[in-house]
Design brief:
By secondary structure, this protein is an alpha+beta fold. It folds into two domains: 2-73; 80-244, Histidine kinase-like ATPase, C-terminal domain (Heat Shock Protein 90, 2-Layer Sandwich). Helix content is 50%, strand content 18%. It has seven helices and eight strands. The strands form two sheets. The chain has a five-stranded mixed sheet with strand order 2-4-5-7-6, with helices on one face. The radius of gyration is 20 Å and the shape is globular. The relative contact order is 0.11. It binds adenosine-5'-triphosphate and magnesium ion (MG). Magnesium ion binds next to α4.
Length: 245
């Protein structure tokens, strides 16, 4: 019964979400129209730049909303590509450049190529790195560390930060849609990550505190060095089939 009620709520929420998305797109296109006219009629070159910047940002937002809508309906078609994991991470880093200022961003990934939907991996890194940056806001030590490990025919990519950590009582909920502890969050970031990874046969998990302290105590493993100062560690597990040799 509780499950049914929850499902009903989710269906209602998704209808509401798509109707809100629809309205937002309408407003965005109106704002874009005004900005385009502004850029056209002003003779001040700085004002023109600002108007064009608004047009750019609105285009980005519209793309985001469209992607989100398609993801929701399961219509997302990304192209298969061969690419280096480090390039996908670099793409995310550039996109989040402003948010990452003042943060040590340490990436230790050897040259490993994947063959899968590149945009999907980009989005996974964007969401996880963005969360890590949020978690570092009030931390003294600001480190984001990304590394990988091959085990049992699978590739694990670790994304860790020295931020506020995730309290025990919410650890179970973080992958649920709309779960957020942030004032301005949608709570969809990790849910989307999970969904995207499952499309390529991958998985994500949050390393629990017990496992973390176990690794941190023994200095005879690769993890030991990497885990220094880390409070939150996510592990992405990718299937062997998408690794290019
Ligand atoms: N690296 C992290 N450190 C601490 N807490 C985290 C971290 N990543 C996720 N969380 C917790 O999990 C919650 C859900 O994350 P998720 O990315 O799904 O949504 P959000 O970040 O709150 O919203 P949005 O992604 O829309 O900005 C966050 O609100 C936060 O409480
Ligand atoms: Mg997020």
């Amino acid at each position: 019964m509780r499950g049914e009620k929850r499902l009903e709520e989710l269906v209602e929420l998704s209808l509401l979400t798509s109707s809100i998305m629809h309205d937002i797109r309408g407003y965005l296109s109106a704002i874009k129209g005004h900005a385009e006219i502004g850029a056209h009629i002003t003779s001040d070159s700085r004002a023109k730049d600002k108007f064009l910047k608004i047009v750019d940002l609105i285009n980005q937002m519209s793309d985001m909303i469209e992607t989100f809508g398609k993801l929701y309906k399961g219509e997302l078609e990304f192209e298969q590509e061969e690419f280096f994991i480090s390039d996908s991470i670099e793409f995310a880093r550039k996109l989040l450049m402003r948010k990452l200022s003042g943060i040590d961003f340490e990436v230790k990934i050897p040259e490993i190529k994947l063959r899968c939907k590149r945009k999907l991996m980009d989005q996974v890194f964007i969401n996880l790195i963005s969360n890590a940056a949020d978690a570092l806001e009030n931390s003294e030590k600001k480190i984001i560390r990304i590394w990988c490990e091959k085990k049992n025919n699978k590739l694990s990519i670790f994304i860790a930060d020295s931020g506020c950590g995730i309290p025990e009582n919410i650890r179970r909920k973080i992958f649920s849609p709309f779960f957020t502890t942030k004032g301005k969050g949608t709570g969809m970031g990790l849910y989307i990550v999970k969904k995207l990874l499952s499309e390529i046969g991958g998985k994500i998990r949050l390393i629990n505190n017990k496992t973390l302290s176990k690794y941190k105590m023994r200095n005879d493993n690769i993890m030991y060095e990497q885990l220094k100062d880390m409070k939150t560690v996510f592990e992405i597990i990718l299937p062997n089939e998408i690794l290019v040799r």
